[in-house]
Amino acid sequence: MNDPLIIAGKAYGSRLLVGTGKYKDFAETRAAVQASGAQIITVAIRRTNIGQEPGQPSLLEVLPPAEFTILPNTAGCYTAEDAVRTLRLARELLDGHDLVKLEVLGDKHNLFPDMPETLKAAEILVKDGFNVMVYCADDPIQAKRLEELGCVAVMPLASLIGSGMGILNPWNLRLIIDNARVPVLVDAGVGTASDAAIAMELGCDGVLMNSAIAGAQNPVLMAAAMKKAVEAGREAFLAGRMPRKLYSATPSSPTGGLIG
Question: Which in 26, 29, 95, 220 has the greatest CB count within 10 A?
Fold first, then answer.
């Protein structure tokens, strides 16, 4: 906890947030989450049972709130109204839990965010007492507006959800990071460990992922790789990389004082 991630006033030792969908069973979900070292676990309320289906297996049996911070999300919502209703249900199911992830989608094929509906939902939820982490386009203006509405973190996509295409527009991410006063976390598009490391080297405060781990041939091993990548990327950012030098080279060893 020498370099904690602070969200809504709470400190977390891990800067990797992971989802809980697409695994073959709850046992694999638990194993991957443990290997990732993640403390914040996002759950799609419209797709995963956390108590809304009595008598059915609940994810909270294997990932209990006493051990992890559960981050309910609105995956599958296409209107502000649906997103707000979903998160109010989640708050009831989780005994007043107020840290949530908002996403309002605009297209069923590319899952790109609908920013007007996202802004509308964010304003309602913040006024309703929620601490809102929000999935958004990699648009610096929209990200700033979400921050100004009171969102506790902005989460621009690196590329399309589940695409594994990595960070397609690092320049926009830097613009968002440089102008933000709340944590900026890459959400969507990470495919492998190097993508996570690059996000952290750019200055992101954290990375959220699901498909990159759950869709790997060995999800538990990939989860461990992502943990290391996020940590290495953060350390490289804090260390400050050497400046780039175009059209010139500098020897690693000095040329002065050579023997002979």
Answer: 29
